[in-house]
């Protein structure tokens, strides 16, 4: 139940970011939910592999290279999903940072409601 709620909140964040950012588009609500599912899968499977392979670059940049990895994950989701598009690396970077911020805020509200 908690996982489904997190997916719906992530889809809501994706929809909101698509409305705010001119470089990101989502066709409809179903596409936003699919984006949330694909991002969850990519963050679970692909991201740890990329983090391990780029560990020296991440250490040298004091962790800032993780932003590049997050943007790559967003671009991978763009590649796999027809109803979702991001126009380039810069928009993917901005989208990933804002998505992380929105998800953090929404999840903190969720935790406060449970208490």
The domain count comes to: 1
Number of strands: 2
* Rg for CA atoms: 14 Å
Residue share in helix: over 70%
Query: What is the number of helical segments per DSSP (H or I, 4+ residues)?
Result: 5
| Percentage of β-strand residues | 5-15%
Q: Could you say which overall geometry the principal axes of the C-alpha atoms support?
A: globular
Instruction: Write the H/E string, N to C.
Output: HEHHHEH
Q: N-to-C terminal Cα separation, in Å?
A: 17 Å
Mean pLDDT: 92
**Order of strands across the biggest sheet?**
1-2
- Category from helices, strands and their pairing: mainly alpha
Keywords: Membrane, Transmembrane, Transmembrane helix
InterPro entries: Phage_holin_4_2 (IPR007165)
Protein name: Putative membrane protein
List the helices and strands and how they pair.
Blueprint: H1 2-20, E1 24-26, H2 29-53, H3 55-60, H4 65-80, E2 84-86, H5 89-114
Antiparallel strand pairs: 1-2
Helix pairs in contact: 1-2, 1-5, 2-4, 4-5
Provide key terms for this protein.
transmembrane helix; 115 residues; single chain; Putative membrane protein; Phage_holin_4_2
Nutshell version of this structure?
Keywords: Membrane, Transmembrane, Transmembrane helix. With 115 residues, the chain is mainly alpha-helical. 80% of the residues lie in helices and 5% in strands.
Would you kindly provide a written description of the structure presented here, covering whatever features stand out?
The chain has one domain (2-114). Helix content is 80%, strand content 5%. The radius of gyration is 14 Å and the shape is globular. Strands 1-2 form a two-stranded antiparallel ribbon. The chain is mostly helical. The protein has helices spanning 2-20, 29-53, 55-60, 65-80, 89-114; strands at 24-26, 84-86.
